[in-house]
């Protein structure tokens, strides 16, 4: 499934503008340490947000019986050829080195279809979360990259009509609820047969169906006048275009638009429309059983770019009040549809499929913006082990304590210095957002004891000084504090006056 | 870090043999549906075993304060150039399309060093689990691929001597214990300074140190006579080679080999050896604190191929009794060392680093073999919802039940047919290894009830028929059965006589 990445107003030909700029860039900069154009490194809080999306989606896919498929990052070139229409020029080729022509995958759908063609699999729900590659003109600020993530769920196999289709929509609803965007996302539906039937009814010649469909696809970004202009340029009569304009302005609940189409005698007379309507009737009853019929909109202007769709098509868009926020400009964050003929291109067998692709990078951008508002702490480690005084900074003792914590499955760190200063150790714990400290002193250790304390407590807190516990009770005490830490609490005062013996530190993180 | 993938007796020049075969292949097969040479699809039980390795390693890395870094799959070509010596010919280039020369990453170490060179990071523990690419002659049966996984943990930054080194070794021990190979893996250590000092002591000219080191590296695969022959060919005197032969036959516990070196006056007189010994003394005390000194062997014959190591080097090998098993032929399954100068090649700052790379595909091969012995069930879904009789196969009711289970976070499936036959539904549940069924009948539904039962119980089991429960109690009953199912139980009899009303099925899965 495409994820809407290419579904933008910038024409793919923009890539031509690439060359001169690149040649200029390459002059004298050959040894510069940088990253390839349109790619990025993921690290820190970003990767935590991203992994949350992966985990939410993966759990939901498994809950629906999905299994993972992980294919190579490149495919034989001829496998990708002829599948993407105009966008084929965005395919990233490998150098021919040893007789095999390969190219980086453009999406995760074609590799899935290739795999189905190679195996004897008849039915599968598969998911795949991985990077795909488009040699497009990158626009990093707007989130258009050459390497980006897709997250696909597809159902392949012969089933009764619209049952898998309803489940895919239900999964979309679950994923958006799971990542916390349930209220902001709306899912638009259409049916290729209704769309194509509508074109026929309006008087579009059959051989122009796909090109007119691609013009309609731009209605969410361009005013009607411009879309009509494109239709006329593509050879349509003005009254035919106007008729399309009337139909495509209709969107509403599934029930409403089904009723609207049924009220049109000329639409009902078209056989393709009839087939599509029958599907949409079934879909409505199934979505009601899945309690998500109210989450979708039937939009006669939805067309989707790719040629291979044969039935239901859909697109999730994020709709938020703030007009100029990143979120409103972000467009579709998931898209897909039914493609019953693609697998047949790779094998003797025709396997009907339906799937959805989530635009992870776009969902990430929205979630990141929200996380930043909340200033979430990127906590990696639970315990920082510190020492004050002692021979050789009590390094061996700090190591033994770390050993005991790691063995108990608790994440722990200590300064990798023989004699670290106490303020440095507190600073390191604070910078890393570590909630607990185990503090070693020579006298305490001689008595078989260590101090366990919560960091960041206000001065008047009863547990400000922590507790001196026997070494063998340390793990239990740490677990007790971690358990209470995970409970909802009054907001911790972000203070650094946590030191033993009133040590004060700079607050710079 | 390399993962030993290239550390094999087959010379990298074997890739030359690639071309004629390829040309032959490409004749007439241009449209064959296949996968690129030396790559594979991951699916099913394989991906579950693989993900277990990822999860175990990731959890341990986090427990030690590690954070993820995810870099692009390709880098600018000049970033990779000159880092891999002879192996540079195995780098996979992208076609030059638009002025930027890129190549697929050869390992995860150079991208990490490039990232350190681009940022202001001074200290980090980073991990990265991802695919890397080598345009080598693939040998799929022996697990040598062109696309394969690496799993790296590295500690970058200025610290006191040998503290991060000890933690890396401790992490290696934890990961192997975590995946269940703790007893089978042995970790061999050496120190580049001791190795280089030893070469000097034996009379190796300084400019031959690396090439003689690479000969010594083959001692675990070739007999001494052949390694000596290579040394003579590289211009060494016979008595110098013999002297190396005496030293390199020594391996034993850290304490033993430290004592052995200290007993040699000529070794002790060498300054590099002295520095190395001081490191090894510290390391021994730190590994004792971490309770894993007994897990390592000091092996004077360990050399490691890559040029960039500057201090401690290590390699984990799997050692099992059965001589001809896959496991014994698999060689090193993790390797790494200290590389203090690599990052300096990408930036103004020199950042000392130490790291380890786990050979995921090799660990996977061993675990898979063991899993196959145990015939572990690849269970994906917990509940299969079935119906017998009823109008339209009770499809809408099955959907409502699925809806309720999904909402409760329980994985569930049902047949995507309007009127599935009951035996088909049982067969589907069995094939997928689903443990529980929710069974709908028209009369029971009219009374607001469904049957919840455990599949695969023997005929005389008291719960063989399951329980008829109210619809609103279904989730609780399913959770009760899942909880008891996860308890240790007497082995379930693999029977298929689970049907309501004594339906019997073929046992073919």
UniProtKB/TrEMBL annotation, chains A, B:
Any idea which positions bind L-histidine?
107-109, 134, 150, 154, 304, 308-309
Protein role? Catalyzes the aminoacylation of histidyl-tRNA in both the cytoplasm and the mitochondrion.
Native species: Coniochaeta ligniaria NRRL 30616
Q: Name one GO cellular component term.
A: cytosol
What are the Aminoacyl-transfer RNA synthetases class-II family profile domain coordinates in residue numbering?
A: 38-371
Spell out the Basic and acidic residues composition-biased ranges.
16-27
One Pfam family recorded for the sequence: tRNA-synt_His
Q: Which domain of life is it from?
A: Eukaryota
Q: Which NCBIfam families match?
A: hisS
Record protein name field: Histidine--tRNA ligase, mitochondrial
Entry keyword Magnesium? no
Keywords noted in UniProt: Aminoacyl-tRNA synthetase, ATP-binding, Cytoplasm, Ligase, Nucleotide-binding, Protein biosynthesis
Question: Which chain regions cross the lipid bilayer?
Answer: none
Polar residues bias: start-end ranges: 1-12
Q: Give any single GO term for biological process.
A: mitochondrial translation
Region described as Disordered: spans on this chain: 1-37
Q: What is its main location?
A: cytoplasm
Q: Which reaction does it catalyse?
A: tRNA(His) + L-histidine + ATP = L-histidyl-tRNA(His) + AMP + diphosphate + H(+)
GO MF annotation terms: ATP binding; histidine-tRNA ligase activity; sequence-specific mRNA binding
EC top class, as a word: ligase
> Which EC numbers characterise this protein's activity in its record?
6.1.1.21
Report the locations given in the UniProt record: Cytoplasm
């Amino acid at each position: 499934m495409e994820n809407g990445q290419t579904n933008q107003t910038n024409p793919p030909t923009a890539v031509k503008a690439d060359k001169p700029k690149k040649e200029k860039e390459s002059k004298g900069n050959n040894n510069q340490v940088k990253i390839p154009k349109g790619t990025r490194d993921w690290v820190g809080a970003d990767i935590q947000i991203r992994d949350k999306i992966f985990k939410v989606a993966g759990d939901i896919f498994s809950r629906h019986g999905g299994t993972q498929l992980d294919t190579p990052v490149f495919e034989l070139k001829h496998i990708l050829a002829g599948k993407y229409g105009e966008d084929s020029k965005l395919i990233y080729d490998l150098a021919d080195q040893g007789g095999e022509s390969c190219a980086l995958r453009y999406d995760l759908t074609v590799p899935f279809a290739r795999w189905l063609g190679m195996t004897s699999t008849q039915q599968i729900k598969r998911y795949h979360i991985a990077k795909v590659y488009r040699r497009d003109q990158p626009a990093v600020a707007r989130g258009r990259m050459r390497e980006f993530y897709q997250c696909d769920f597809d159902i392949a196999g012969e089933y009764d009509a619209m049952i898998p289709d309803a489940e895919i929509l239900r999964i979309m609803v679950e994923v958006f609820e799971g990542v916390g965007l349930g209220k902001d996302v709306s899912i638009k539906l259409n049916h290729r047969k209704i769309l194509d039937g509508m074109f026929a009814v309006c008087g579009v010649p059959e051989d122009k169906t796909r090109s007119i469909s691609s013009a309609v696809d731009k209605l969410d970004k361009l005013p009607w006048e411009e879309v009509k202009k494109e239709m006329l340029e593509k050879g349509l009569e003005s009254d035919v275009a106007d008729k399309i304009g009337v139909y495509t302005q209709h969107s509403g609940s599934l029930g409403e638009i089904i009723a609207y189409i049924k009220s049109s005698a000329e639409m009902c007379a078209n056989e393709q429309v009839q087939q599509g309507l029958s599907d949409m009737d079934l879909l409505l009853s199934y979505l009601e059983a899945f309690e998500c019929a109210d989450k979708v909109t039937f939009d006669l202007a939805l067309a989707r770019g790719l040629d291979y769709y044969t039935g239901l098509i859909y697109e999730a868009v994020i709709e938020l009040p703030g007009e100029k926020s990143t979120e409103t400009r972000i467009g579709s964050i998931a898209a897909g549809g039914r493609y019953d003929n693609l697998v047949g291109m790779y094998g003797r067998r025709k396997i009907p499929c339906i799937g959805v692709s989530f635009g992870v990078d776009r969902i990430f951008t929205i979630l990141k913006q929200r996380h930043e508002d909340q200033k979430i702490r990127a906590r990696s480690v639970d315990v920082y082990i510190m020492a004050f005084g002692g021979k050789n900074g009590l390094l061996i003792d700090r190591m033994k304590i770390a050993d005991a914590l790691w063995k108990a499955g608790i994440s722990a760190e200590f300064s990798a210095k023989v004699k670290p200063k106490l303020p440095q150790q507190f600073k390191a714990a604070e910078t890393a957002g570590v909630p607990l400290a185990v503090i070693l002193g020579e006298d305490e250790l001689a008595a078989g004891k260590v101090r366990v304390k919560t960091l960041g407590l206000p001065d008047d807190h009863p547990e400000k000084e922590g507790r001196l516990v026997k070494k063998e009770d340390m793990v239990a005490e740490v677990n007790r504090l971690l358990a209470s830490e995970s409970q909802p609490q009054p907001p911790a005062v972000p203070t650094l006056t946590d030191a033993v013996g009133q040590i004060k530190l700079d607050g710079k993180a």
